[in-house]
Each structure stands twice: as C-alpha cells, then as structure tokens.
Amino acid sequence: xxxxxxxxxxxxxxxxxxxxxxxxxxxxxxxxxxxxxxxxxxxxxxxxxxxxxxxxxxxxxxxxxxxxxxxxxxxxxxxxxxxxxxxxxxxxxxxxxxxxxxxxxxxxxxxxxxxxxxxxxxxxxxxxxxx
Length: 131
Known about the structure:
By secondary structure, this protein is mainly α. It is 46% helix and 11% strand.
C-alpha cells in the first residue's frame, strides 16, 4: 500500500488505518465486540461466553475499548452492584465489517486448517488415585 502524502497537512491513510487496526487489536477485542454487537452483557456473562479469558484480561480489554469510545459501561447503584457493557453508536458503525467477516467465514471457514485450542489458562485438574 502506498503512502499518500502530497503535502505536510495531507492525511496518510496508512497511518490512519494502523490507528483503526490498533483499536481492535488484541487477542480478545474482536470477540468481545462481536458478543456486545449481539446484546448487552454483564461482566460475568462475558467471561463465561469467552472460554479461556482471564478476569484480569477481560477487565483490561474492556477498559481499553471503553477508553476508545467503543464500549459503554453502565453501573447500576443496586445491591449487589450491577455493571453492564454495551457497544456505543460509534462501534455500531462496525456492523458492516462484522457482517462481512461473518459472510467471509461462512464461505471460507471450513477450508481453513483447524487450530488447536491453546487460548488462555486451562484448569489444572489432578485426579487422586485411591490406595
């Protein structure tokens, strides 16, 4: 891709696209955005919906998405405290992109090699044998 810089004030689309990619880069951000595109989630629901993500990583990714204006965090002053996450109107602008990715996957997904499930921490279950 060429850098289109004709004068000092011109927009460099390569740099702009790098900024756009950076908003959604990270191991979990696209999956979080996909889920929030479907409906509003509470933190625990998101954690259960994303196998392998740790509580810490989900918190980090949600905070970054919130800081970038893509996720809205709403706190309800109830006992126990209820916190909900949803995508913003700005993030809804990504709907055509998510739909295009889904269409691409439906067409080509079964032609791609399967990857082993290696994401996140796995439970360390040890079985004690009876003596």
